[in-house]
Design goal:
- This protein has 556 residues and is an alpha/beta fold.
- It folds into two domains: 9-320, 4-Layer Sandwich (Purple Acid Phosphatase, chain A, domain 2); 335-533, 5'-nucleotidase,  domain 2 (Alpha-Beta Complex), CATH 3.90.780.10.
- Helices cover 28% and strands 23% of the residues.
- It is built from 17 helices and 26 strands.
- The strands form six sheets. Strands 1, 2, 3, 4, 13, 14 and 15 form a seven-stranded mixed beta sheet that branches. Strands 6-7-9-10-12-11 form a six-stranded mixed beta sheet, with helices on one face.
- The radius of gyration is 25 Å and the shape is globular.
- 52% of the residues are buried.
Length: 556
């Protein structure tokens, strides 16, 4: 199988004279967290409608990934360069395509695009080990994750590798990989999928590849931007880290969270580039690595390529998308409600503070079961996967927000355990983790900088039309989703301490659709201050030193 495939015009990062003299230049095209955005998306990262497409305001989709990757690959190879295309995990989950086809569509399109390797993402386990097996057995390239011990797993041990070696332009490119160790809390791997420490596993795999004579090693990971920087710092032998999981936008564009590449002082004394390309097929990452004769990285540069309307989607893939979309188009296009304002479900907001979508979904959950003695609703911010723009709302948009087919769960829980759940929700805010608690029937204050166990304060419950402090010893009726109720996203207190449990309520997407429909056409959702986040004080600018003759006397 050819290892040189796709590329983009940021590849007009053409090599300088100095780079041209280098022994070996490798162009790394990469995607991450595509999340079933098979069709093109709008600015809210949900499926683009016909009107927006007509206005040429859509982005991404696998047709654009294919077209731009091919364009860049052909340009680079024509100039005698070397190129690979990688994916850093989470192809699964996020649209009706995955809900309908359960990974077979991912296999088909990844093969058509021509990927060279892929890291396992946590959402590849959303339908258990069998769900990942659909992908790993179906594609013709390595699917890897080096910190998974699969020796006791008969379903995956022979189809998911720990490392891979690609031959590109006469050189061996080693790939090592790791998956976030909290995946058992965020997805559904079986107990026979044993997770090992990411740093330790990657270090061992890099050493093994070095021993085999591989002197160019990339870490293809699904652990998040913060952990990727730690990997770059601590794992000897790694030349670059190509990551996913945190949906981080890097580059020179507005709202970027860091430089592309982010350079980190590595374990071997050299700087190691770390890259990621946001999510949802909106960008194609393009990293250019220059190695000297000894295989030492001497230069790293690049930028993600925005896949906007200037990129014409691949015709054959577009035709196939329409064919696969036909059976689900009726459901997807059904208008179920209307809103006069956009409903913000941006992950950066919903995982860090009260967001409009979080409050709306929690309100919908609570309204559905309030007549059953339920007073509180808690929804994980990571379960909210898209925003919705103003105007008519289709069922397809609703499902893009809540794609996991989670059901409404109800149970009883003591007040102290409710506070413990909120503590869990605040425990990884700095990492943008999905466990952040969006709530209804509840108010609370969170201090992200406080020590564990003391982040949450001023918890109040709506009772008899007014707010009252939560009683640690009292029992409350709580609504959540079945994923959280069974311990997902670290909510082990729900699994361990809940009583009178019922996990089999309606699908949350239906609950949300019905709730918005009941509000009528003038509905304008907004936040209302139910979550207060204590912001860290801004660092003060150092005062200018006064002239010596006017300096204040020293303190006594």
């Amino acid at each position: 199988m050819t290892r040189t495939r796709l590329m983009a015009s940021a590849a007009a990062l053409a090599l300088s004279a100095g780079a041209a003299q280098a022994e070996y230049v490798l162009h790394v095209l990469h995607t991450n967290d595509v999340h079933s955005r098979i069709e093109e998306i709008n600015k809210y990262d949900s499926t683009c409608d016909a009107e927006t497409a007509e206005a040429k305001e859509c982005f991404g989709g696998v047709g654009r990934i294919a077209a731009k990757a091919r364009e860049l690959s052909e340009q680079i190879t024509a100039e005698g360069g070397n190129v690979i295309l990688l994916d850093a995990g989470d192809q699964y989950q996020g649209s009706l395509f995955y809900t309908t086809y359960k990974g077979t569509e991912v296999v088909e399109f990844m093969k058509a695009i021509g990927y060279d390797a892929m890291a396992v993402g946590n959402h590849e386990f959303d339908d258990g080990d069998d769900g990942l097996a659909v992908l790993a057995e179906g594609v013709e390239f390595p699917v890897i994750s080096g910190n998974l011990d699969l020796s006791q797993n008969n379903r995956l041990k022979d189809i998911v590798d720990g490392t891979a070696v690609l031959e590109v332009g006469g050189q061996k490119i080693g790939l090592i990989s790791a998956l976030a160790t909290d995946t058992p809390e965020t997805a559904s791997p079986s107990d026979s999928v044993i997770f090992q420490d990411e740093i330790e596993a990657l270090t061992a795999d890099a050493e093994a590849l070095k021993a085999e004579g591989v002197d160019k090693i990339l870490a293809l990971t699904h652990v998040g931007y913060l952990k990727d920087q730690e990997i770059a710092e601590k794992v000897p032998g790694v030349d670059a880290v190509v990551g996913g999981h945190s949906h981080t936008l890097l580059g020179d564009m507005e709202d970027a969270q860091g430089k592309y590449p982010t350079m980190v002082a590595g374990a071997d004394g050299a700087e190691v580039p770390v890259v990621q390309a946001y999510a949802y097929s909106k960008y194609l990452g393009h990293l250019v690595l220059t190695f000297d004769d000894a295989g030492t990285l001497v230069k790293a540069e690049g930028q993600p390529v925005l896949l906007d309307a200037s990129v014409t989607p691949d015709e054959a893939i577009t035709a196939r998308i329409k064919e696969l979309a036909a059976p689900i188009e009726e459901l997807k296009s059904k208008i179920v409600a209307e809103t006069t304002t956009a409903i913000d479900g941006d992950r950066n907001n919903c995982r860090a503070r009260e967001c409009i979508m979080g409050s709306l979904v929690a309100d919908a959950m609570l309204e559905r079961v309030k007549d059953q003695g339920i007073q509180i609703a808690i929804q994980n911010g990571g379960g909210l996967r898209a925003s919705i723009d103003a105007g008519p709302i289709s069922m397809g948009e609703i499902i893009s927000v809540l794609p996991f087919q989670n059901t409404l769960a109800t149970f009883k829980l003591k007040g102290a355990d409710v506070v413990a759940a909120l503590e869990n929700g605040a425990s990884q805010m700095e990492e943008g983790a999905g466990r952040f608690s969006q709530v209804a029937g509840l108010k609370y204050t969170v201090d992200p900088a406080a020590e564990a166990g003391k982040r949450i304060s001023e918890v109040q419950v709506m009772q008899n039309g007014g707010w009252a402090p939560i009683d640690p010893a009292a029992e409350y009726g709580v609504a959540s989703n079945n994923y959280m109720r069974n311990g997902g996203d670290g909510y082990s207190v729900f699994e361990a301490n809940a009583t009178q449990v019922y996990d089999f309520g309606p699908d949350l997407a239906d609950v949300l659709a019905e709730h918005i429909a009941r509000q009528g056409p003038g509905f304008s959702p907004a936040t209302d201050g139910r979550i207060t986040v204590i912001e860290a004080p801004a660092e003060e600018e150092p005062a200018e030193a006064a002239p010596a003759e006017e300096a204040a006397p020293a303190a006594q």
